Amino acid sequence: MVLAIEIMDDPFINSIEKYLAIEKEIDSPFLFVYPDIGNVSAWHNDIYSEFYLGHHAIAALHLKDTYAVTESSKGQFRDVPFGQGCVKWEEAFDILKETNYNGPFLIEMWSENCETVEETRAAIQEAQAFLYPLIKKAGLM
């Protein structure tokens, strides 16, 4: 059994660095990290350091956009259109390429506002149209 800890929208575990502290305490070949690029970005983490230090333990990646946490805002961790949030997509994908990431990506999005299957399909296609060219440009697809 493998356990992958997701980087969350909560201060408890909002960085790969915090995962690495847990990894140090639980020495197991079955423990991994599951970074959510949106969550990592929203907490103002240094994306390069985060992915460079934790690349050996990444099981998979969530792809979503977020609005950053600030002194006056709790941020927004869902329902943020791709490209309108705080994620620096090209930088993130370039770092993943540099660290030889070759695992799966999961596009994280919500469809509560879609009233039909066609609207849901269109939302998925819009996300793919935004992300796939960036992933390809970085050489990850």
TrEMBL record:
Keyword Isomerase attached: yes
One Pfam short name: AP_endonuc_2
Recorded GO MF terms: L-ribulose-5-phosphate 3-epimerase activity
EC numbers, comma separated: 5.1.3.22
Keywords recorded for this protein, A-Z: Isomerase
UniProt enzyme class: isomerase
Domain of life: Bacteria
Domain Xylose isomerase-like TIM barrel: 2-132
GO biological process: L-ascorbic acid metabolic process
PANTHER family according to UniProt: ISOMERASE, L-RIBULOSE-5-PHOSPHATE 3-EPIMERASE SGBU-RELATED
Protein name: Hexulose-6-phosphate isomerase
